[in-house]
Specification:
Elements (H helix, E strand, L loop, with lengths): L2 H11 L10 H13 L10 E5 L5 E4 L4 H10 L14 E3 L6 H10 L13 H4 L10 H12 L2 H9 L2 E3 L1
Length: about 160
């Protein structure tokens, strides 16, 4: 999912009009999602540190897979490495607070847009002639194609709200 599509998800959750006719079932589904994720609100640039049970927290970036993959690579001390990268969110390490997240983003604001996203081995198979390319070259090629520094920069600069 791209940055633009992920942000559109946020905007619909925050109450924006979809801009198309929606069935009753679709309207009910959207209403249910808005109830389930009430923290999503305008402006569309915001991200959210949502505390769940215990000391677990999720950072809802709504940034897309490429940006979240790079953010996970650049924030290894903040983002839980055992959790998979999602298009819409990143799970934070146990005990990490919204304040610590904000501090890390501020300290690394210049460096994070240059972080190359992580590439899983399975992603290399999609590269044409992948079997003939050395693994590290293939990994770097896929990572550079996947990179979205503008999305990372926008996410880093977005306000982090708590919920």
């Amino acid at each position: 999912m791209s940055f633009a599509l992920a942000r559109a998800h946020h905007d619909v959750l925050a109450g924006a009009s979809i801009g198309a006719s929606v069935t009753r079932r679709g309207r009910d589904g959207i209403a249910g999602l808005r109830e389930r994720y009430p923290f999503a609100e305008s402006p569309s640039s915001a991200t959210y540190a949502v505390q769940s049970s215990g000391s677990d927290a999720t950072w809802w970036t709504f940034a897309g897979f490429a940006a979240n993959s790079a953010l996970a690579q650049g924030l290894t001390d903040i983002v839980d490495p055992s959790a998979s990268v999602s298009e819409l969110r990143l799970r934070l390490r146990r005990g990490v607070t919204a304040s610590e997240l904000r501090d890390a983003l501020q300290e690394r604001a210049d460096a994070l847009p240059g972080v190359i996203p992580g590439v899983e081995h399975e992603m290399l198979a999609a590269l044409k002639f992948s079997e003939a390319v050395p693994v590290e070259l293939a990994r770097e090629t896929v990572a550079r194609r996947l990179a979205d520094p503008a999305a990372v920069g926008a996410t880093v600069m977005a306000p982090v709200r708590t919920a």
